[in-house]
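F.,

This is the one I mentioned.
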């Protein structure tokens, strides 16, 4: 593609497709400070059992390695702030997992965006490729990274899915990163029940309830299981505590609403959940990432049921 991307057109089409925010960044290697921080995070083993974070590090740190010839990165965000947070029976799931699988939703809309823009040489990504998504969202001017390591969008909060289009064309205008606006607030650090969020700006996945209840395939250490409360998939406490989320507007996107069957579950239903029921209940849902065995492990931990 030889013609330049129109920043105004890209953003107009993105908003027409339901994206909450959109920005453009010039493609290039990840800057030295962020590259060093990522390399150190891996070297320290803070990614716990997520070995896939180690793979393709060269592609994470240089988009040219992922798409040769890429000149621009379009970053988009989609609001998933829920109106309801809990299922009947008192068990909760991380807000991002209440609706249909965001990977599919984001990919479909990214391809639609590319089509509307007449793009032919591009790649669309959403959380399944070696892309430092929050880094590019910051470069594209969407927001800043808070102390909870989440992207914070001004006057909108943190509950957003991120996605990218890598494009082989320059843009007529690129966006400018925003300065951080967390100030002296450390509400997210205070809210983290396991100390996964360090006061020194570090993040240790092995202590994080989101990692332990989703990515982790082993037992959950009792010292962390006792901190789960009633959440059986993920943990939103650092987001719930963030003052910027008081500006968040619950999404009315039909694809992101929880199914009635999920909301109607009782404690007894959860404990009796069979593999077939699990497959039906979470068909097309991100919750399947934890697998049936992992979810039942979490449920039993939350409900304090001994094996």
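My design for it:
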């Amino acid at each position: 593609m030889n013609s330049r991307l129109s920043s105004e057109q890209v953003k107009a089409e993105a908003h027409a497709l339901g994206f909450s925010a959109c920005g453009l960044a010039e493609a290039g290697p990840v800057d030295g400070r962020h590259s060093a921080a990522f390399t150190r995070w891996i070297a320290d083993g803070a990614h716990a059992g997520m070995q896939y974070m180690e793979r393709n590090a060269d592609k994470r740190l240089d988009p040219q390695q992922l798409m040769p010839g890429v000149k621009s990165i379009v970053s988009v965000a989609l609001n998933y702030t829920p109106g309801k947070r809990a299922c009947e029976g008192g068990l909760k799931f991380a807000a991002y997992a209440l609706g249909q699988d965001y990977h599919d939703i984001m990919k479909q809309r990214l391809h639609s965006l590319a089509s509307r823009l007449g793009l032919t040489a591009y790649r669309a990504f959403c959380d399944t490729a070696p892309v430092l998504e929050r880094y590019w969202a910051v470069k594209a001017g969407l927001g800043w990274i808070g102390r909870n390591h989440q992207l914070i969008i001004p006057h909108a909060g943190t509950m957003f899915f991120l996605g990218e289009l890598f494009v082989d064309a320059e843009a007529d205008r690129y966006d400018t990163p925003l300065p951080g606006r967390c100030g002296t607030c450390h509400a997210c650090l205070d809210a983290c029940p396991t100390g996964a969020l360090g006061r020194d700006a570090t993040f240790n996945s092995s202590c994080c309830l989101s990692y332990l209840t989703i990515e982790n395939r082993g037992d959950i250490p009792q010292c962390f299981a006792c901190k789960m409360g009633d959440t059986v998939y993920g943990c939103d406490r650092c987001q719930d505590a963030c003052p910027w989320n008081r500006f968040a507007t619950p999404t009315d996107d039909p694809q992101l609403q929880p199914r009635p069957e999920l909301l109607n579950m009782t404690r007894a239903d959860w404990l009796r959940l069979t593999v077939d029921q699990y497959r039906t209940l979470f068909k097309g849902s991100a919750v399947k990432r934890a697998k049936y065995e992992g979810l039942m492990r979490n449920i039993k931990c939350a409900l304090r049921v001994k094996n």
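The mean pLDDT is 95.

Talk soon.
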